[in-house]
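Box S1 | Example of a co-folding query
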Amino acid sequence: MRYKLSPSILAADFTRLGNEIECVEKEGADYLHVDVMDGSFVPSISFGMPVIKSIRKKSRLFFDVHLMIVNPERYIRTFSDCGADGITFHLEAAKDPLRVIGLIRDAGKRAGIAISPETPVSDLSDEIIKRVDMVLIMTVRPGFGGQKYMDECTGKIKELRNRTRELKPDLDIEVDGGINRETIKTVMNAGANVIVMGSSIFEGDIAENTKYYKKVLK
Ligand code: DX5
Ligand code: ZN
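Box S1 (continued) | Returned holo structure for D-xylitol-5-phosphate
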């Protein structure tokens, strides 16, 4: 399986954002995970268009934009124009998920759909799975970095990987929340291949952390 490391800038030091992105890029990060929160789908508010636009000028990484916002269809074009390469929205936040997937495709971007810990994998229809490039299984409650991995989510990763073996063998399965030196093997063994990491990358020595996880994901 082709593994990808997607450092989440939510945990970065925003006074040094450009430098920290440069550092993960130099050490071989594959994606850059960009968490957009609206204070409505989730309690917190993170950052939005101006930040993405300005880091786009500095980085060639694949921007893996994770929208934690209500009615995501309103903003697909905007985030695409700001420099997203992939856009992932929440199943729970969309009235018509197939339409949102269509909008992401029309914008020429890779489409992802996310499910929160309380949402079962069975809420994703075969049709949705066939039309997205990636499913994001949240392994913490969306909204904040630095939370503890929820063990009950491991079964959902396995269930989705088994279900897609025939349905869509090349589906990317992303995990997000509480991934660290202890939990990374668990999610890899369960079938995840795109690994988001906030605090485990940006706390401490960013270059060393990135190098370490790139090795694990080889
Ligand atoms: C949480 C965000 C995550 C967050 C993960 O809602 O979606 O991407 O940055 O942070 P860690 O890796 O610290 O759990
Ligand atoms: Zn995220």
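Strands lie at 4-7, 31-37, 62-68, 86-90, 110-115, 134-138, 172-176, 194-197. The mean pLDDT is 98.
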